[in-house]
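Input record, target 12 of the design panel.
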């Protein structure tokens, strides 16, 4: 059978990189996407190719429609139609500030990068998935996004991701008969190098902010995505899945 092709946005580093490696280990051909991290993307491309699968790296900013169209066309040209769309990329302003203090350009960038760009990417890959009556679409959110609660100092990011929650559920219903599943992954506060570590590598560490007691790892996220991509996972769709060790980013637990 022809190997399935997975496009992972923002995959030169971090959670996207770990997801790309994990899916390559499952035998999927991989399309890496990056904006500025060209060196890391090309290094990852070579690593994945040694696993015996095809891989290509494409530069594109998913907050720009022209780049999105180029990204999908380049992947189709080099590998073929996208079977698995992992929407990992999305800008995040770590500085905590009130909505009134955002510049209009920041508002547009956050909405385009986290919501509009994701919707446009899905729109472009759907025709191929529909034709073959098989597809996997995965969005990224934040812990408890499905509850649509207030998140002070994160107004624009939260609004974009909560909008994506509704879109995830709607698209899942609309495309179910086409054999396409649509789900959202909501990682916990996985920081720094831990995004590219395995579960074994973080198991001995302590994290007093997370109820589970250990920090999250890239593998925690990647293994769930790989599971959702299995043929037999076709009954799992429209779900918003918190993978956070019990952490609530908005209202932390008091242990």
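The sequence produced for target 12 reads:
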């Amino acid at each position: 059978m022809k190997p399935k092709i997975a496009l992972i946005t923002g995959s030169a580093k971090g959670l996207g990189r770990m997801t790309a490696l994990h899916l390559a280990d499952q035998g999927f051909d991989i399309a890496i996407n990056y904006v500025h991290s060209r060196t890391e993307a090309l290094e990852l491309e070579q690593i994945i190719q040694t696993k015996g699968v095809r891989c290509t790296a494409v530069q594109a900013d998913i907050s720009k429609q022209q780049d999105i169209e180029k990204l999908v066309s380049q992947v189709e040209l080099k590998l073929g139609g996208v079977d698995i769309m992992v929407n990992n990329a999305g800008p995040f302003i770590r500085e905590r500030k009130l909505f009134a203090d955002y510049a209009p350009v920041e508002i547009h960038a956050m909405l385009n990068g986290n919501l509009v760009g994701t919707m446009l990417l899905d729109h472009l890959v759907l025709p191929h998935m529909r034709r073959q009556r098989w597809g996997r679409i995965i969005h990224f959110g934040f812990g408890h996004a499905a509850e649509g609660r207030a998140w002070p100092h994160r107004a624009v990011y939260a609004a974009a991701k909560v909008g994506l929650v509704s879109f995830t559920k709607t698209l899942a219903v609309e495309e179910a008969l086409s054999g396409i599943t649509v789900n959202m992954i909501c990682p916990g506060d996985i920081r720094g190098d831990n995004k590219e570590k395995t579960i074994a590598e973080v198991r001995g560490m302590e994290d007093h902010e997370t109820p589970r007691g250990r920090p999250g790892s890239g593998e925690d996220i990647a293994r769930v995505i790989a599971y959702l991509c299995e043929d037999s996972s076709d009954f799992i769709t429209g779900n918003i899945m918190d993978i956070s060790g019990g952490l609530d980013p908005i209202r932390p637990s008091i242990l």
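The longest strand covers residues 180-187.
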